[in-house]
Design goal:
Radius of gyration: 20 Å
Distance between the termini: 63 Å
Number of domains: 1
Strand content: under 5%
Order of helices and strands: HHHHHH
Pfam family, one: Retrotran_gag_2
Shape: elongated
Mean pLDDT: 79
Largest sheet: none
Number of strands: 0
Low-confidence stretches: none
Helix content: 55-70%
Structural class: mainly alpha
């Protein structure tokens, strides 16, 4: 239990330094949050299923899941928090955020690249 409290404090200190995710620049936010989850060793609930055999492991997994969900939700803007506050499983929350915002970042990059490729300079037009 003492180890869990230390991790909780570390998470609070690290997550408080981050800018809340507001729906823009998902990859940047993802790259900042994931190391915090790994550092505090709570990222395992994102990849491992809930154990079914040992009650001690189940309780440990549930505590870690709650901490992970809390950590992710704390780093969402108020608008996004309202949309994702009903999630109680860290894996489902993480996958939903990835599915929703990862492709939007890709689409924005494609749009700006496409727009840049069709940029033309015309001698008659002034730039300023």
């Amino acid at each position: 239990m003492k180890k869990q409290v230390v991790y909780s404090l570390k998470v609070i200190l690290e997550i408080s330094k981050l800018e809340a995710f507001d729906g823009n620049n998902f990859k940047r936010w993802n790259v900042r949050v994931l190391p915090i989850l790994k550092f505090t060793e709570i990222d395992r609930v994102l990849y491992e299923p809930k154990p079914k055999d040992d009650p001690k492991n189940i309780v440990k997994w549930e505590r870690t899941n709650k901490l992970c969900v809390h950590t992710i939700k704390c780093d969402l803007s108020n608008k996004l928090f309202d949309n994702y506050c009903h999630f109680i499983c860290a894996k489902h929350l993480w996958n939903k955020l990835n599915g929703r915002y990862e492709f939007e970042d890709e689409d924005a990059k494609k749009f700006s690249t496409n727009k840049f490729m069709y940029f033309q300079m015309i001698e008659e037009k002034k730039c300023f």
